[in-house]
Amino acid sequence: MPEGHSVHRIARQFDRNFVGRTVSASSPQGRFAEGAALLSGREATAARAVGKQMFLAFEDDLWLRVHLGLYGAWDFAGEILVDPTIASANGRMGQTNQRGTDLAPILDDAGENSLSSIGAPRRTRVHVRMSEQTQGLGEDGDEWPPPVVGQVRLRLLTETTCADLRGPTACVLQTPDEVAATIAKLGPDPLVDDPAEGEERFTAVVRRKPTSIALLLMDQSVVGGIGNVYRAELLFRARLNPHTPGREVPEEIVRQIWRDWVRLLAIGVETGQMMTMDDLDPAAYRLAMANRDDRHWVYRRAGLPCRVCGTAIVLEELAARKLYWCPRCQA
DNA sequence: TCTCCATGTTCAC
DNA sequence: TGAACCTGGAGAT
User: Fold this and answer.
1) Which family does it belong to (predicted)?
2) Catalytic pick among A42, A209, A321, A328
3) Is A10 found in the same domain as A140?
């Protein structure tokens, strides 16, 4: 599942490519047919991400709320204008159209959070139309709009850009009041809330809970956007035992975790990758970036030696999710 | 072709 | 606390 960084990238993609444009909406799969009919023909007016939720506003105060859940993904096709605040990890941002505008790079790696497909990692279809002169056909002869492949819950189409939504946990229309109620239930998000205020909210909640810090970090009402990968990595970086009750975690460590999340989220949004070993030396960093299976301190490293102490990384189940940690560094 | 798996949430018990 | 939901890739058969 895309953690918070991906959802912010998606929102920025929508902001750049859909906001201000009239959208044609459909539900090829049929499960969002009524909603798509209501959206179709309206202009998109805003795109926002809060935690793992994305909100897309349309004319007449109609909001689309999407949560990708475990399997969801957006595939973008067509002419994709890249938000200048996000980049591909390998820097392949070179394609430009005849107006000199950046187009989407081809995949940054195995599809993880590339600009063309954002969500659950999967093989990606990339269609990049180079200019309006080629409207109707992509440069390589692709159809326009692209043929529907698989279970597409919602297709949003402008004259130049196509976004296909697959497998979301939530895809619903909301009123402004409902959007506000949804957001009110979420914990602070460093890219939405003032980071200093967020730190205070996060610290106050964690410090009064008997629940383990590992569960609290995954609780979206405590902090927005953290998922299983960032949880494991944040706890390792803090050298904190995942089972420590929140109220027993020293305040300075709680604040350190928040500030680390602020930092990692910013890196994730910028690069599209959950790089958590940013404090490596440059050579080791480049190596880690090149190999997505070797990019974390503990996540998916069960049984492998800890990168710091050599102790075997432990894998256990906590609330039906896999938890990776080093029993020595995080004793 | 079948089974398992995954970066998640919600609901019933 | 555990099951259901959801989708497609990967590996086993």
Assistant:
1) Belongs to the FPG family.
2) A321
3) yes
CATH code of the domain covering residue A319: 1.10.8.50
Contacts 24+ apart (CB under 8 A), A247-254: A247/A206, A247/A207, A247/A208, A247/A209, A247/A210, A249/A206, A249/A207, A249/A213, A251/A203, A251/A207, A254/A202, A254/A203, A254/A206, A254/A207
Q: Is the pLDDT of residue A326 over 60?
A: yes
Which residue reads 């980071």 in tokens?
Answer: A195
Domain assignment of residue A101, given as a range: 4-181
For the domain that residue A16 is a member of, what is the CATH number? 3.20.190.10
Task: Give the residue from A139, A165, A181 where a domain finishes.
Answer: A181
Q: Which of residues 148-207 of A touch strand C (CB under 7 A)?
A: 149-151, 153, 166-167, 169
Q: Give the integer Cα–Cα distance in Å for A107 and A292.
A: 13
Q: Do A38 and A171 reside in the same domain of the chain?
A: yes
Quote the CA–CA distance of A136 and A143 in Å, as a whole number: 7
Confidence of residue A82 (pLDDT cuts 50, 70, 90): confident
Structural domain count, chain A: 2
